[in-house]
Amino acid sequence: MDSNEVDNCHSSSKSDSSSHSSSESDSSSNLDDSLGELLLFIKLNEYYSRFHKEPCMISQLSGRQFVIELLTGHPNRLFDFARMDKNTFMNLCSTLRGLDFLQDDRSICVEESMCMFLRIIGHTTRNRMDAEKFQHSKETVSRQFNRVLKAICRFGTQIIQPPNMDMTPPKIMGNPNYHSWFKKNDCIGAIDATHINAWAPASKQIPYRGRKIEVTQNIMCACSFDMLFTYVYTGWERTANDSRVLMDAISREENNFPLPKEGKYYVVDSGYANMRGSLAPYHGERYHLCDYRGRGRHPRGAMELFNYRHSSLRNVIKRCFGVLKARFPILKLMPNNPIRKQKRIPVACCTVHNFIRMQSRNDIIFHQYQANDLQVVDEESSEVNQEHIHLHEDNANQMSDVRDHIPEAMSPYKFVGFVQVMVVVVVESGVGVMEGDVEEEEAGLVVE
C-alpha cells in the first residue's frame, strides 16, 4: 500500500469519529432540552394549581343563605334540622355572644356555626356532609365544630348547676305519693349512669367493651326532678362499674361533685351503695316499674311499696337519658374523634338539653317523656357486674336507718293496692253490671 492510500484511510477514520461525536453531542443537547421543557411544564402546572384552583363548592345557595332560609321558613324545618324551635335557637346564639364564648368568624356567623354543630350532633352526619350542605371546606367545618363545642362546654359550667338543697323539690311537695315520706329527709335528685357509643383505636378497645361488641363509655349524671342535669361525669370505660365511678367523682376535689348537705340525699338504684348522700332500694325485692305492671303484680308489703315509690321517683333520670339520646343520636354512633373530644361531646349535649328545658317548656321531645311512670328502656344501662364498695360502718348505718324509717312511716297506712273495677253498662231495660271483663287500677293509700 502506498503512502497516498494510507493517508486516505487515516482521513476517513478521522471524519467518521468526528461525525459520531457530533451526533452524540446533538442527542445530548436534545435530551437536555426535553428535560428542561418537562421541568418547566411541571413548575407551571404547580403554579397554576396553587393560584388557579378549580372551584369545588359552586352551589348558588351558600351556607349563610341556607341558614336564613331556615330561620325565615316554616318552624318545623328548623326544629327538624336543629332539634329545637326558633326562639330557643336564637336565644342560644345570643347568649353565647353575650357571654363572649362565641363570636362571628371572618366569613361565618354564629348562627351558621351553630347549625353546623347541631346538625352533626343531632343527625350523626360527618364533616364532609356539612361541607357540602354549607358550601365550606371540611377543614372549615371541623374548625367551626370545635369552636362551638368549646363554647358550649364553657357555657355548661354555668347552666349545669347543683340543685337548691335548701328547698324541697316541687314534684315531691305536690305529690302525695312522695311528700309524706321523701320530704322528711329531703330528696334532692337522682343519680344514674348510662353507656354511650365511643370510638377507640384497636389497641385500646378492651376496657371500652363489655358483654356486647360495641365500644362505649360510661357516663354518670345527676338530675333534678325538673329533668335538668345537675352534674355530668364522662370519660370512664364501659367496664367501669357505677359505684366506682361515683366514688371517684366524690373523692377527687377537681371533679366538683355536688355533695348533699347533712340529711339530704339522691335516689340511686341497686348498683350503688346505700351510703351517706345516696338512698338505694332494698335488695332482694322487686324494684323496677316493669316488675309491677300487669294484673296481680301490685306491691305487697312495706319494702316492695318503698321500692315501687323509689323506682317511680328515680325514673326521672331514665327519662332524662331518653330525651338526651332521642335528641342527639351522636351519642349512639360516635364518630372517630380523639378520646378527649369524645368526653366533651356528652357534656355539650347535656348543656343544650338544659338550655332547651329552661327556654321551651312545650318542647315536643320533653313532652313525650313527661309522664312520671313512663317506662324508658335503656339498652345501654350499666346495672350489671357491680362491685361491692366497702364503707365505714357509721356511713352505711346512717342511710340504712333513713331507708328503714320510710317504710315504718307507711305503717299507719293500709295499702289497698289494686282493686277490681266492675264495668257498668247501660242497656235498653236499664242499668246492668257486666262482670266479665274487669280491669285493675291503682287505688293508692288510704288512712285507716
What does this structure look like?
- With 448 residues, the protein is α/β, with parallel strands linked by helices.
- It folds into four domains: 1-51; 63-154; 160-410, no CATH class; 413-447, no CATH class.
- Helix content is 48%, strand content 15%.
- The protein is built from 14 helices and seven strands.
- It has helices spanning 3-51, 63-72, 75-82, 86-98, 110-123, 127-134, 138-159, 170-173, 176-182, 242-251, 302-327, 339-359, 364-368, 393-410; strands at 187-197, 216-223, 229-237, 265-267, 278-279, 413-427, 430-447.
- The chain has a five-stranded mixed β-sheet with strand order 3-2-1-4-5, with helices on both faces. It has a two-stranded antiparallel sheet with strand order 6-7.
- Helix 11 (302-327) crosses helix 14 (393-410).
- The chain is elongated and about 105 Å long.
Instruction: Give the neighbour order of strands across the main sheet.
Output: 3-2-1-4-5
* Shape type: elongated
> Would you tell me the overall average pLDDT?
79
Q: Indicate how many domains the architecture comprises.
A: 4
